[in-house]
Specification:
Helices cover 40% and strands 24% of the residues. The protein has helices at residues 2-15, 18-25, 29-43, 59-83, 99-116, 168-174, 221-229, 239-247, 276-287, and strands spanning 48-50, 55-57, 91-97, 120-126, 140-144, 153-160, 162-166, 188-191, 198-203, 206-211, 217-218, 234-238, 252-254, 263-269. Belongs to the LysR transcriptional regulatory family.
Length: 296
């Protein structure tokens, strides 16, 4: 029970509240509260100061959080290592995937994996889970871009680049930009999280940004791709997001010679020794041809 209480405590701290932790663990807030009460009673220490609006860790709570994180991480990794000794592709596999990769590539094909391994149960969660791979017990996570110094194990799946695209109809009306600077004449549909309002390009061995403007910002690359297909404007998106649209001529790519060098797509795993189910899923990812860019 102590390990269960510790994991509940970690979730409360990382979710910044009892109700959010309850949602994460699929328990009632009352159950979360009881577990924390029992943990504090077991330790004989007050870990969390609770008010109606917020919670704050006591000094003992801060120290216990640091120790608990290491203990739970070590125990969960030990379990994964032991599970890796099994040669059967079975059990539960929890995977974190960027939404666009999940929607475009995984969802249309994942039934093949289920048919091949009927004893395997998949839990696919969309989002950026690299930093949560330990605390939320992910077995694998896909990460697009440079890896932080996380101490995780990883495999390189391939490379991707940004692409500047618009529909054939849009370019027929407005013309194609021949240089990145000419994008200022176009309606550039930008990602909401791009606070710089700049798109990155490469010239004479150096990266530089072109400031763009447009009448639409969205926080979904997939939605931006779909709007661009309708002729609304120009987008700057990962190659794996627009790959199918370009292949089917719903979008046309321009300025490829000015795009910065390739970025990596990694599959990250928490334990050194991959289990049979993890190996099977990674092989499945390779079969999806998520990326096909060259490292040059």
């Amino acid at each position: 029970m102590l390990l269960t209480w510790m994991k509940t405590f970690l979730t409360v701290v990382e979710c910044h509240g009892f109700r959010a932790a309850a949602d994460q663990l699929r328990l009632s807030p009352a159950m979360i509260s009881r577990r924390i009460d029992r943990l504090e009673a077991h330790l004989g220490l007050k870990l969390i100061n609770r008010t109606t609006r917020a919670l704050a860790l006591t000094q003992a709570g801060q120290r216990f959080y640091q120790h608990s994180t290491n203990i739970v991480r070590y125990l969960e990794q030990s379990v994964r290592d032991l599970n890796g000794l099994s040669e059967e592709v079975s059990g539960v596999l929890k995977v974190g995937l960027p939404y666009s990769l999940s929607h475009l590539f995984l969802a249309p094909a994942v039934h093949r994996l289920s048919q091949q391994y009927p004893e395997l149960t998949l839990e696919i969660v969309n989002g950026n889970h690299l930093l949560d791979i330990f605390s939320h017990s992910y077995d694998l996570a896909l990460h697009a871009g440079p890896l932080p110094d996380s101490g995780l194990y990883y495999q390189l799946l391939g490379f991707w680049r940004k692409k500047v695209c618009a529909s054939p109809d849009y370019f027929a009306i407005h013309g194609k930009p021949e240089t990145p600077e000419q994008l200022v004449r176009h309606n550039c549909l930008d990602h909401y999280d791009n606070r710089r309002n700049g798109w990155g390009f490469w010239r004479d061995g150096e990266r530089y940004d072109v400031q763009v403007k447009g009448n639409l910002r969205m926080n979904s690359s997939l939605d931006l791709c779909k709007v661009a297909e309708q002729g609304a404007g120009v987008v700057y998106l990962p190659s794996f997001t627009v790959k199918n649209a370009i292949a089917q001529q719903r979008l046309v790519s321009v300025l490829d010679q000015d795009i910065p060098g390739p970025l990596q797509l990694y599959v990250v795993h928490a334990n050194r020794n991959l289990s049979a189910k993890e190996q099977a899923f990674i092989q499945f990812l390779h079969s999806l041809n998520l990326v096909d860019e060259k490292n040059n």
